[in-house]
Input
Amino acid sequence: MKHNYKVRVYYQDTDAGGIVYHSKYLDFAERARSELLVEMGVSNKKLIEEEGVAFVLSSASIQYKSPAKLDDVIDVETSVKEIKNASMVMEHRFLVDGQLKVVIEIKLAVINPKDLRPVRLKEELKKLFMNYQESQGE
Output
């Protein structure tokens, strides 16, 4: 299963030519991941403050296929590619009218926000993320 999040491209998201500025895709991906947590019924704030768990980006790989433009509505498809004990790999696919524009693969580390040390992803949270794991057929 994939999580879908729609984002409209505003003027502030573009360069002088009306093309989405490259770093904005990382912002859009962050919003999509936050909305995925909401869909899962998980509060980022509660995770940090009460559970001692935070997700931090440890690496990102971005492939630009073609530009999204001012006023486009981008469908951000998010899926989980891999889940480990203290990290996960996610993929964000950015589409406009079904045309693939950008693919971002990110690795997230699971840390304690107080001491910034890795922590194990709790089984209940791991199971929620597994609902968004790519199947072999996708």
Summary: The helical segments are 24-40, 44-51, 123-130.
